[in-house]
Design a protein that fits this description.
177 residues; single chain; 69% helix; mainly alpha
Length: 177
């Protein structure tokens, strides 16, 4: 594969997280769209409106988690719920920033793309390891609540991100060599 093509594919494929999660910057509870309309495909199956979470149900689930906080620790529980949604928004912001860099990089000559390939290659490599972990391969921590669809996403996206990491590695070495 010619290096310029590997470089361009390595950048373009790194747009995926922003395309899926960018809306969560505006409203972190819109992650339910991913849960309702994307994750059922990995069941495998088709999404159905009758199986999807509504906003009211999602808020009730968060309220139930907060109500389950140990007695006297409500403020800490509230901070925990806040932090999960805050981190979700920051993650979406990071995906948007990385996508902006990838789009910018597509207009650069190969030799000038090396820093982008370095960062995006590391991101893709770590995404591959985390997805492999969700698929059942040990490494890089432990997720205590992996759903069936979450495991299936790990099975699909571990190889996807491994390929993206290799493309970015090849492009990085070509750009710096």
């Amino acid at each position: 594969m010619p290096t310029y093509l590997a470089s361009s594919l390595g950048l373009i494929l790194c747009l995926a997280p922003a395309l899926v999660h960018a809306v969560e910057v505006y409203r972190p509870l819109w992650a339910r769209w991913v849960v309702n309309w994307v994750m059922p495909v990995f069941a495998p199956g088709l999404p159905r409106l009758s199986n999807g979470l509504t906003l009211d149900e999602q808020v009730a689930m968060l309220d139930a988690a907060l109500d389950a906080a140990p007695k006297g620790k409500y403020p800490v529980g509230a901070d925990y719920i806040f932090l999960m949604l805050f981190e979700q928004r920051q993650g979406a912001l990071a995906f948007i920033a990385l996508a902006a860099g990838a789009i910018y990089g597509l207009g650069l000559p190969l030799a000038d793309r090396h820093a982008l390939h370095f960062v995006l290659g590391i991101m893709a490599g770590l995404f591959a390891v985390v997805n492999a972990n969700h698929a059942g391969i040990p490494g890089l921590g432990h997720h205590p609540k992996i759903s069936r669809n979450g495991r299936n996403i790990g099975i699909v996206f571990a190889p996807f991100w491994a390929v993206v990491a290799v493309l970015n590695y090849l492009a990085f070495t070509a750009a710096t060599g």
